[in-house]
Specification:
The complex is a heterodimer. Chain A is mainly beta. Chain A has no helices and 12 strands. Chain A has strands at about 5, 10-15, 20, 25, 30-40, 45-50, 55-60, 65-70, 75-80, 85-95, 105, 110-114. In chain A, strands 2, 5, 6, 10, 11 and 12 form a 6-stranded mixed sheet that branches. Classes of the chains: A mainly beta, B mainly beta. The interface of A and B includes residues 32, 34, 51 and 90 of A.
Chain lengths: ~110, ~120
């Protein structure tokens, strides 16, 4: 069975500072990997995805993520955060043979200090 | 784009009533739609997978008779919470996907409060 772990429940970062959110997955092969962002009371917005190819993936809103097979990780980064980046971030995986079903991590809440 | 609209965004109703939530893909045809439930400060829990024209596939522990899902067209799926009780209060989110290797696009969710 596939699983996703986001080790950090909360992260507080100063505006303008860099941000890195950790995501580790467990799966027998290389799954499809996703990062979503959720603002309070809203649905999820896709930031970026990795299916294959270049392991450094660029997404929207200045985010990027790097797939590291050896570490089973797909960490999300942003060089300089903005106050509007305060939200909940979810890493998700989908097995290639699992239909389209996603398995989500527990989420990381990002707080941005002025 | 890939826009998914969910309606209503917020509903309050009395215990014992049934509530219907709609999920529409506005600018694409969704072969598959998903329904999730999210408790406060928790992750999303998949309730069921819905394919157009066929019965929904429910996850273990989700009551089929309690949460009725209909996917009558490639752009619309509905979730009906039957005989709702306070413990059914939650945030319900739908998502839709174009096909097998396509990402899911999410609606803005429905906050359901049962009094």
């Amino acid at each position: 069975a596939q699983s996703v772990t986001q080790p950090d429940i909360h992260i507080t970062v100063s505006e303008g500072a860099s941000l890195e959110l950790r995501c580790n997955y467990s799966y027998g092969a290389t799954p499809y990997l996703f990062w979503y962002v959720q603002s309070p009371g809203q649905g999820l917005q896709l930031l970026l995805k990795y299916f294959s190819g270049d392991t450094l993936v660029q997404g929207i809103k200045g985010f990027e993520a790097e797939f590291k097979r050896s570490q089973s990780s797909f960490n999300l980064r942003k060089p300089s955060v903005h106050w509007s980046d305060a939200a909940e971030y979810f890493c998700a995986v989908r097995g290639k043979a699992a239909g389209n079903k996603l398995t989500f991590g527990g989420g990381t809440r990002v707080l941005v200090k002025p | 784009g890939a826009v998914v609209s969910q309606h209503p965004s917020w509903v309050i109703c009395k215990s014992g009533t049934s509530v219907k939530i709609e999920c529409r893909s506005l600018d694409f045809q969704a072969t598959t739609m998903f329904w999730y439930r999210q408790f406060p400060k928790q992750s999303l829990m998949l309730m069921a997978t819905s394919n157009e024209g066929s019965k929904a596939t429910y996850e273990q522990g989700v009551e089929k008779d309690k949460f009725l899902i209909n996917h009558a067209s490639l752009t619309l799926s509905t979730l009906t919470v039957t005989s709702a009780h306070p413990e059914d209060s939650s945030f319900y989110i739908c998502s839709a996907t174009r096909g097998q290797n396509q990402p899911q696009h999410f609606g803005d969710g429905t906050r359901l409060s049962i009094l």
